[in-house]
Design brief:
The complex is a heterodimer of chains A (79) and B (171). Chain A has 79 residues and is mainly alpha-helical. Chain A has one domain. Helices cover 63% and strands 0% of the residues of chain A. Chain B folds into two domains: 114 residues, no CATH class; 38 residues, no CATH class. Classes of the chains: A mainly alpha (79), B mainly alpha (171).
Chain lengths: 79, 171
């Protein structure tokens, strides 16, 4: 068995058990880039990034709940 | 740098090219050092984050061409990683197909039928593990997201990014 080499091999399976937590750094980085592009002044940048990252995470949680309800509740109810 | 309505908002070809070459370089060229560093750092962190999750197999212009179009927006870095992947971690099988080696296959450079030196897949141990399932999905997606974010930065740098100042400073 080969040893894990970062950036060459994929993450070991155990690191992907809570794969959905990778949403947090991705949401943060998207916010960092987007706010750096869009803000007219960088005053209040950190707060704006934090707010946008939380909005993304809440939006994704909302989509997950909506998808769950659609598949597990409504489709079964209609079926 | 003063910001006033439409006075400097014009096409900036040099900034656009620099933004394509290195994420954030277009904004740095325009005088926005901090923005450029934040954009460049963010895009590269996302790209290499995808590489960290999915391994080098998540950057693949042959097997994941559509995704690579998105990843390519990061610039020469993406093409370099893809070249390293194709040249060092993939080989030709007995059917003449370029692919990643399986669990019990390795790569050796040897001449093909035409006498040209090529990476050939032979029984052995691979240099890297094939990225499959969720690791591959996440790695490919995050690296492609980095390219999409840099595309926005390229357009922004190309338009000079000199907008009128607004009260509140938000998006």
């Amino acid at each position: 068995m080969l040893a894990w080499t970062p950036f060459i091999d994929p993450l070991p399976g155990a690191w992907l058990h809570y794969w959905y937590l990778y949403l947090l750094p991705v949401a943060l980085l998207i916010s960092v880039i987007y706010k750096a592009i869009r803000m007219h002044e960088l005053k209040g940048y950190v707060q704006a990034v934090a707010v946008m990252a939380v909005q993304i995470v809440l939006g994704m949680v909302g989509l997950a709940i909506g998808s769950f309800l659609l598949v597990e509740v409504f489709v079964r109810w209609w079926g | 740098m003063s910001l006033s309505l439409h006075d400097d908002e014009r096409f900036q070809p040099v900034a656009a090219v620099l933004a394509c070459v290195l994420p954030g370089a277009g904004h740095i060229y325009l005088g926005y050092l901090h923005r450029g560093l934040l954009i460049g750092g963010g895009v590269l962190a996302m790209f290499f984050g995808g590489l960290f999750i999915g391994g080098i197999d998540s950057i693949d212009s042959h097997e994941d061409r559509i995704w690579f179009i998105g990843q390519a927006m990061v610039g020469p870095v993406a093409f370099g990683v893809n070249y390293a992947h194709q040249a060092n971690f993939k080989g030709y099988d007995s059917m003449g197909r370029l692919r990643s080696p399986g669990p019990n296959e390795g790569i050796v450079s040897q001449p093909d039928r035409a006498g040209q030196l090529r990476n050939m897949i032979v029984p052995g141990t691979p240099k890297s593990k094939k990225s499959l399932g969720r690791a591959n999905e996440l790695g490919t997606l995050v690296a492609a997201l980095a390219g999409m974010m840099n595309l926005i930065a390229i357009f922004d740098a190309a338009h000079g990014r000199r907008r009128p100042k607004k009260v509140g400073g938000g998006a």
